[in-house]
Amino acid sequence: MQYDTIIIGAGLSGLAAGIRLAYYDQKVCLLERHTTIGGLNSFYRLRHRDYDVGLHAVTNYAEKGDRSKPLNKLLRQLRLSWDDFALCPQIESSVVFPDCTLRMTNDFELLRSQVADHFPAQADGFNRLVQSIDEFDPFAETGGYQSAREHVRKYLSDPLLENMLFCPILFYSSATPNDLDLRQFVIIFRSILQEGFSRPYEGIRRILRVLVKKFRGEGGELKLRSGVKQILHKNGTAYGVELDSGEILEGQRILSSAGLVETQRLCDQTFVDETESTGDISFVESISSLDCSPADLGHHGTVVFFSNQTDFRYERPPTPVDLRSGIICSPNNYQFDEPLAENKINITALADHGYWLNLDDEDAYRAAKQESCRAIIENAVKIVPDFRDHIVDQDVFTPRTIKKFTGHLNGAVYGSPTKQLAGTTPLDQLYLCGTDQGFLGIIGAMLSGISMANAHCLS
Ligand SMILES: Cc1cc2nc3c(=O)[nH]c(=O)nc-3n(C[C@H](O)[C@H](O)[C@H](O)COP(=O)(O)OP(=O)(O)OC[C@H]3O[C@@H](n4cnc5c(N)ncnc54)[C@H](O)[C@@H]3O)c2cc1C
């Protein structure tokens, strides 16, 4: 079978790329190893309850009709309407550090005034930092890595404020410890602090259902349970794939969302040094179902990013989970017209992938999950109302879960620290999209799929 484009992975980037190409009448095949779509952002039903994996918040919120905003541009590229995702804005989020809390909503002026109130000596510098971010074009920059910390320190001198701004940005995007590339910083600053958070009432199911329906409606072919065992190439040009089943599919070009090192392994080639280019940042997340809404317990926050120490550390921790910081997220705390049927609180913490991936014994793995879950919740209830007596069910995912469902080595949630912004590889007709191309998160992954499809498959 000869396709115009074969896409590896039906996560958000692969689905978006597929829609774009199928819309332009390409014969597209989307291959997914698992039994369901969504990759890092998926959903499942367990003990009669619905669970979302990976959806805390959709970033880049934009009002309907605001044509200049990235979300609305993305929807236009996918030929979708604003109502298709039915996004409801957040209530309020915050960054909580010892002795200081910064509140934020989808109105950036709240954060600006919070900075002025809590850090009056930094207010002017913060405004100039924001201006520098507004003027920076991350897509036009072609140079190498620039430290975001160094850029921010040109404007801010208070390490507490610096760390409070980096905390949500690193947590929601960074494959590198403690700092990130300035381009990435600017993209994420805009998408989470300036534009803000939202969520469909039905969670990630809604977005995935819309995307897959659109893809199929445009004539795209989705093959689940179709893992790619190897990428076939000859004389430096990729021309097809061999599936785990042994079936061969040929295509004029291949777009891979499997990851940089993972894709090079599929080619049996060396594009990059594996030790330097395999990601290290991973998470454990506990999802608690409650017998009442978080609001009934006095918790109205959408996403709370916290650090128990002023010196926020974002890195692979020396312990199974990092109890120094975390994210507390409640899917109930959005401006929905009616309450969600289920009540949930998710707690996310940095995790040592080495510990989790080396637990061979199933009983030991289960016990470790239980203990980490207990510890991260005990830590979180120092910040939000104690919900432990209201837990009716619980699930936990670890770096091992992330590895299993995405194929990312080390369960690296944001993939490789080495991003390939151009999406090219040393093989002709083989391109990367998604996490390791460099745009992250739900909206970022879709933007990546669209831009790589436009750049390499439609010209
Ligand atoms: C705990 C957690 C919370 C998150 N919260 C948010 C959030 O609130 N907001 C947000 O915007 N983002 C969030 N993210 C990040 C977001 O989920 C990801 O950035 C995004 O989903 C990445 O999409 P992707 O298409 O690049 O890759 P992936 O989702 O990794 O998809 C890749 C797909 O390729 C498949 N695949 C891999 N190898 C093969 C192969 N050889 N053959 C066939 N198929 C293969 C995998 O099975 C997978 O389905 C979160 C992630 C996690 C883990």
| Main sheet summary | 7 strands, mixed
Helix content bin:
25-40%
Total strand segments: 18
Number of domains: 3
Measure the end-to-end span: 23 Å
Bound ligands, named by name, code or SMILES = flavin-adenine dinucleotide
Mean pLDDT: 95
Strand content: 15-25%
Low-confidence stretches: none
- Name of the top-level CATH class of the largest domain: Alpha Beta
What overall form do the CA principal axes indicate?
globular
Structural class: alpha/beta
Say what the CATH topology of the largest domain is.
FAD/NAD(P)-binding domain
Q: What's the CATH architecture of the largest domain?
A: 3-Layer(bba) Sandwich
CATH superfamily of the largest domain: FAD/NAD(P)-binding domain
Radius of gyration: 21 Å
Q: Count of DSSP helices?
A: 15
Verbal overview:
- This protein has 459 residues and is α/β, with parallel strands linked by helices.
- It folds into 3 domains: 2-53 and 202-277 and 416-457, FAD/NAD(P)-binding domain (3-Layer(bba) Sandwich); 91-195, no CATH class; 280-406, no CATH class.
- Helix content is 34%, strand content 22%.
- It is built from 15 helices and 18 strands.
- The strands form 4 sheets. Strands 1, 2, 9, 10, 11, 12 and 18 form a 7-stranded mixed β-sheet that branches. The protein has a 7-stranded mixed β-sheet with strand order 7-6-14-15-16-13-17, sandwiched between helices.
- Helix 1 packs parallel to helix 9 and helix 4 (108-118) runs antiparallel to helix 5.
- The protein is globular and about 60 Å long.
- The protein binds flavin-adenine dinucleotide.
- Flavin-adenine dinucleotide (FAD) is lined by residues 8-14, 31-34, 39-41, 54-57, 59, 227-228, 257-258, 262, 283, 285, 348, 402, 406-407, 413, 434-435, 440-442, 445.
- Flavin-adenine dinucleotide binds at residues 8-14, 31-34, 39-41, 54-57, 59, 227-228, 257-258, 262, 283, 285, 348, 402, 406-407, 413, 434-435, 440-442, 445.
